[in-house]
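Forum: Protein Structure Q&A
Topic: Joint prediction for protein chains with partners

I've read a bunch of threads here and the consensus seems to be that you should model interacting components together rather than docking separate models afterwards. I'd like to see that in practice. Below is the full input, 750 residues plus whatever partners are listed. Could one of the regulars post the assembled result?
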Amino acid sequence: MTESVSDKRIVRVDLADRSYDILIGPDLLTSAGGETLARLDCRKVAIISDVNVAPLYLDTLVESLQTDGIETFAMTLAAGEKTKSFDNLTAVVDFILEARIERSDAVIALGGGVIGDLTGFAAAIARRGVRFIQVPTSLLAQVDSSVGGKTGINSRHGKNLIGAFHQPDLVLADTTTLNTLSPREFAAGYAEVVKYGLIDQPDFFHWLEKHREAVFAGGDARIEAIAQSCAAKAAVVAADERENGRRALLNLGHTFGHALEKATGYDSARLVHGEGVAIGMVLAHEFSARMNLASPDDAKRIASHLKEAGLPTSLGDIDGDLPPPDIMLDAIGQDKKVKGGKLTFILTRGIGEAFIADDVPPSEVLAFLTEKHPQ
Amino acid sequence: MTESVSDKRIVRVDLADRSYDILIGPDLLTSAGGETLARLDCRKVAIISDVNVAPLYLDTLVESLQTDGIETFAMTLAAGEKTKSFDNLTAVVDFILEARIERSDAVIALGGGVIGDLTGFAAAIARRGVRFIQVPTSLLAQVDSSVGGKTGINSRHGKNLIGAFHQPDLVLADTTTLNTLSPREFAAGYAEVVKYGLIDQPDFFHWLEKHREAVFAGGDARIEAIAQSCAAKAAVVAADERENGRRALLNLGHTFGHALEKATGYDSARLVHGEGVAIGMVLAHEFSARMNLASPDDAKRIASHLKEAGLPTSLGDIDGDLPPPDIMLDAIGQDKKVKGGKLTFILTRGIGEAFIADDVPPSEVLAFLTEKHPQ
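Posted by a regular:
Agreed with the consensus. Here's the joint model:
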């Protein structure tokens, strides 16, 4: 599924008439116009970015597009998880309509997962769907949110509870943009890289254990890790686009993770998404061990790897107070992966052996959270 | 495609795993619980209605559902086209999440097209899609908006410019509810019935010319007209769910119609959707005659039939001032059926011979509007 063309990799996501390419490599921003026109006949684009990313990369992107004759409109939003709001959705959709972006034109998300999720949702609902190009500039977005078509915003009831499935038409993952990430942001994205190994690719996890430093340093190992992650996600998405089954495996660590993000008020100073996933993956393995499904050694081995990568691995690693366990359980119940009162979790029988458990008793989760709670 | 079971008709919409039944007949509200459980295993529903419809039918629907053990939550909104706003969308989605409607539960739209479009859009984006049941209580909604999965809200840039494709899981078209419609509302819905004849079923149009009074009086002729309309729409939708081609035929009369709705500020005292479509269909036939595609006699014959049904058929039939022709052309350009600067219209070669023209010169439309403008 991956092929190498000069210095960039191409991962194809196979989804019938919604198939698309993910390009991964250095300096893709400067060839964005050509790569776009090679795949889409679009005359006009609306670019949505945020105040952190736009000053670094917007001019380069706009210049590349305009050189190839594509008319551009750009809108810059505040950065951070709170940007995924109904108010911003309204504003972005209005901007798209104001720019008269037609169904055959495109909307481009230039930024991390927040910009990608919000912009993709706006592209999904403007004119009931216009074309969408992801230009992810964080590691998290390159390996996760830009692949697979999940878009959305947050609600006071929880994260990503409002959204749509809307596949991109093209993803340009310019690895040069990762050089400006803070170590904390890079580590947060790395949690999702590790996730693919834990789901069903134990060899990839073992490779990461050996090459973690090289991946953090950049260069070929980093590109390899991103391409492997995109290919792993693409395979799962191709098999189950709308999450009726197997795709739920991608939520490994996310049920606990989302509850922690809610518990910390989506305050990125305390916890970002990838950090919530890191803790969530350790909790999922610990909970699996508690249910006698997996060895407790796996949870320890994973926690050790994530800790070396600079990630938090337990509730106690989060600054400040957390809500009591019953409130956290309530947040888990409000998460969208719920069926008939029983909780759905991704549990595991060991590294690379994750599975969907849709009959987890809330009482067991409450007892587990109480045990793990630092208070 | 239609079958008769006791006194109700069933029209099946064939859309692979999104196929669903439209039930048409008297007193379906009182058997809503049973009809729902016969098709969907749902424990909980959120019902969205408006202040006109809820007092008449909400109690009956709730009682039927509760008798069959389905938990119900109900929300009542203001009536009218202005209800299709981002603010109401936010409120409805929040209500759905607050009620903890899960993906396998359902949201029910009890009302006309406005409630159906808004509620369907909310059901499409809450948890990225929950089940959706349409209980249309206007003729317009029974023959048009409740069939086919188009959902959406209005924008300051135009009507239905924000939305999603989200198929219902069931449509309950209770013909008893039509007895409380005003003559004006019934006539507005009738415009869409006529449309199906004009698109590709000349025999149905001739049948309507003979049976118009019986359809207005109620009884079997009315049920027949509704079932024929639903079957006609279902056939088009099944062939082209996401409007990449043939489905655009359903927009006969709608490009002019939407522009007129915008020109009258979505003020239902001046013009409702079906009236806009009635005028729009006449204009589409007149414009086709002007382009030497069809005989001017067809436009006259259609206008005569619509006039007998109590519908407006020309710009001069609209109360109050209209914007000048160039502003109306601009509204047409902002309508979503635009491709590369040329206008897309549904034109015709005669009754039942509509076709998609995607290269209509704006200058011709401007000249035509100037000629038809009453000022």
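The radius of gyration of chain B is 20 Å.
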